[in-house]
Design a protein that fits this description.
Largest sheet: 4 strands, antiparallel
Number of helices: 12
Strand content: 5-15%
Structural class: alpha+beta
Strand order of the largest sheet: 3-4-5-6
Mean pLDDT: 90
Order of helices and strands: HEEHHHHEEEEEEHHHHHHH
Shape: rod-shaped
Length: 466
């Protein structure tokens, strides 16, 4: 290669290398705004001729492309995925808690505490005017308003819970779709690597799919020497090489769980992405607040009925009438059973305001029921009905604010990490234009070098011919 013709090879390689550099620069510029694209860098190496005894060593063999490197920080990539997982968990929990707050409407005038207070006010009024038909009618209307409101709130909580389950199913389907896409990319990347080639664009697509997947579930990624990836979710295999294992939802006695297709249950904990947030909402958050509502209703029904059955109706000695229909946990949610008894619905005179028979002006039993408002009945005798419900709503508010705080905090962390990743992997148009100018000048110089060699050969052949 020390000959004149060897110099032509040096020039040819130079043209090829600079042209490839310009092509890669053009690819970077074209994808400056492409989501998930990582800047590519052309690495060149000088070709060194082997040393041989007694042989003159040429200056070199020219240049060759050693690699087209994808500029990406694996550290920041992993941290972004972890932050994304946590942020989406808290965001999903926050959405659930916000929805529950909207349904309860506390401390608005249309909330349960306000209507419950008006219900006890109606009993107080009845204790003063036990013979008034209008007061009895008002009491029944307030009771109907209370029971109707509680049933409506519980029903809307059930609807929201059902919506969360549907969203969970859609999210699991999305996970399966992403896993299948990553498995297909694994196959293509492995095939190219077996041929001694690689596609940075395919690697970017796979990383983008992994980032989308990390929003939904906490994943652990293992890189294999073949270029393929193994992905674990919840401690169970999600995909291996070009094989993925679909996830499914199972109902285990009212509690939802996620399994893969080979029957392994995913261990999904707090913070493990959007799926964890939905499971937390369905399995824990909704039962907690629906349970609190059932507890309030059950206690209120039992306490009011116990006193009411001991009283006397307006125009007779009959006792033992329930004001509310008794609730039975075995028949379903107590809140959905919450209603006025048929005896009260059909006849206002069956409201037992008196403590003695044949005393229509006696309102002492109504007063006893009105005083339940201040009685320490809930929480093992430490709280009133109002205090108990206010405590439940306070817990809801605290949980909602905590979820919002964590969601915003993780979002800021994620944005900071993305900025750092972008400073490494992102395309700077100014830098790319500078690179383009450098490759252009190098290409022109290589072309000029070949022209000079051509002229030199022309002179040589001319001299030989003469």
């Amino acid at each position: 290669m020390g000959s004149t013709f060897g110099s032509f090879e040096i020039g040819r390689r130079a043209l090829h290398a600079q042209q490839k550099g310009a092509q890669v620069t053009g690819q970077n510029i074209a994808n400056a705004n492409t989501e998930g694209y990582s800047r590519q860098l052309v690495l060149m190496k000088a070709l060194v001729p082997p040393a041989a005894p007694g042989v003159e060593t040429p200056p070199g063999y020219g240049v060759a492309i050693s690699d087209i490197r994808r500029i990406k920080s694996e550290f920041y990539g992993d941290q972004i995925m972890k932050s994304t997982t946590l942020q989406n968990y808290w965001e999903r929990v926050r959405e659930t808690l916000d929805g529950i707050e909207i349904i309860f409407q506390e401390p608005e005038e249309t909330g349960i505490n306000t209507v419950l207070n008006e219900f006890f006010d109606a009993w107080q009024d009845l204790s003063v005017n036990p013979e008034s038909h209008a007061v009895r009618l008002s009491l029944r209307e307030q009771a109907e308003a209370l029971t109707g409101l509680v049933r409506d709130i519980y029903g809307r909580l059930e609807e929201l819970k059902f919506d969360v389950r549907k969203e969970l199913q859609a999210t699991v389907t999305q996970v399966n779709t992403l896993a299948a896409e990553i498995a297909d990319l694994n196959k293509k990347i492995t095939y190219l690597q077996a041929l001694g080639k690689k596609s940075n664009e395919l690697l970017d697509q796979r990383d983008l799919c992994l980032q989308e997947l990390s929003k939904l579930v906490n994943i652990r990624v293992n890189q294999k020497a073949s270029g393929s990836l193994e992905v674990l979710a919840g401690g169970c295999i999600l995909l291996h090489d070009d094989r993925h294992f679909d996830l499914e939802i199972r109902d285990e006695g009212g509690q939802l769980a996620v399994y893969n297709e080979i029957g392994a249950r995913l261990s999904i904990r707090e913070g493990d992405g959007g799926i964890a947030g939905m499971l937390q909402s369905y399995n824990t958050v909704f039962p907690r607040y629906q349970g609190a509502l059932n507890n309030l209703v059950s206690t209120l029904v039992n306490e009011v009925n116990d006193l009411h059955k001991g009283g006397y109706v307006f125009d007779g000695p009959t006792t033992g009438i329930n004001f509310f229909t008794p609730v039975d946990p075995d028949l379903g949610a107590e809140a959905l059973q919450f209603s006025i008894s048929d005896e009260i619905k059909t006849d206002l005179n069956n409201i037992a305001a008196a403590s003695q028979a044949d005393h229509p002006g006696d309102g002492s039993n109504a007063l006893k029921i009105a005083r339940l408002r201040e009685a320490l009945i809930m929480e093992e005798g430490t709280a009133t009905f109002h205090d108990y419900f206010r405590g439940v709503m306070a817990d809801l508010g605290v949980e909602g604010r905590e979820a919002e705080r964590m969601s915003l905090a993780m979002e800021r962390v994620m944005e900071s990490l993305q900025e750092k990743q972008e400073s490494i992997s992102g395309v700077s148009l100014d830098d790319e234009m500078l690179n383009l100018v450098q490759y252009q000048h190098a290409y022109n110089a290589a072309a000029r070098f070949l022209n000079v060699l051509d002229e030199m050969l022309g002179v040589l052949f001319s001299e030989i011919g003469s």
